[in-house]
Amino acid sequence: MVNLESENRDHRETVDLLIADATVLPMHGPHQELPHCSIAISAGAIVEVGPHEELRRRYVSSRTIDATGLLAMPGLINGHGHLFQVMCRGLGDGCDLSNWAAAAIWPIARQMDRTACEVAATLACVEMIESGTTTVADSHYLHAYPGAQEGIAQACITTGIRAILSRAAMDTQAVPEFFRESVEQAVSATSRFIAAWNGRQNRIMVRPEAMSEVAASPQMILGLRALSREAGVGFHMHAAEERSRPERLEREMGHRTISYLDSIGVLGPDVVLAHCVWLSDAEIMTLAGTGTSVIHNPVSNQFLADGVAPVPMLLAKSVKVGLGSDGAASNDSADMFEIMKSTALLHKISSMRCDVLGADE
Fold first, then answer.
1. Rounded CA separation 45/181 (Å)
2. Of 206, 238, 204, 209, which Cα lies nearest the Cα of 306?
3. Which residue in 33, 58, 75, 279 has a CA-CA distance of 20 to 30 Å to 271?
4. For residues 207 and 271, what is the distance between their CA atoms, to the nearest angstrom?
């Protein structure tokens, strides 16, 4: 007598992992939860998602996670942060952006060598992984000690998170001399970092970053932007985070932040700008026309009383907007579920509309 169940098992495909009997949230559209589904995974890639009973008949796994009663969804992406700032958690309370760095960042930052940066980044990555984040975009601007940025990168490799690592450079009197670099130093060091780490284990991407419109000179911005194009990688900046910054640029150069960056040829679809709180209508159209993306940091912007970024207007003009936690010194957390909740609530109350930025969006 043939044992059909045994024969069926023998013909099942072997996979590394089966996440069994979950409610799957595929993010294909609103309210498309798929109950009693399983996910077959091999070699780090999803092989199939389908009804639990069907996949149980077709696959045998080396490891099975019983996800009954649990939700399975894509990993979250933290679009902007500063991993080293775990060491600065709680120090920025009561400060606005004009005095926050002096109170919360610069004193500790002077001690952040490679070991300290690696330990801090490890703690930050574990916190994010435990709350569902699988990718982080980090902006690191402490380069006084050799290998500090490499410590950040190694922490990302060790913890298993995916990372977009921006080597941010500063050269103006807006920052202490201890943290400044020349344009030549920044371009050369960033080029070496790209060569050594970009593509590492298929989980690390490296990008140049000119820190901000006030911390980086036009020469620094243009030098690093040229490197990003030459290396075929993206480009990052902080932009229009504080009200005074675009106003100052307008007085000194005749341009607000976004129009200034556009006038010197920086913007484009490979550019990601963090914050973008203070934008004119014309600048929103410029972002849309150039394909430049924005990362919204709602908790940090509230923490520092920066203002409310015009996210609904950006989305209405088809600007790509992601979410970020920013650093622990202006958030105290890297939990992206908290960021999503804060985003929804902030824009509902600021617009006085309950239908703005619903859960699915």
1. 41
2. 238
3. 75
4. 10
Return the structure tokens found at 321.
């907007």
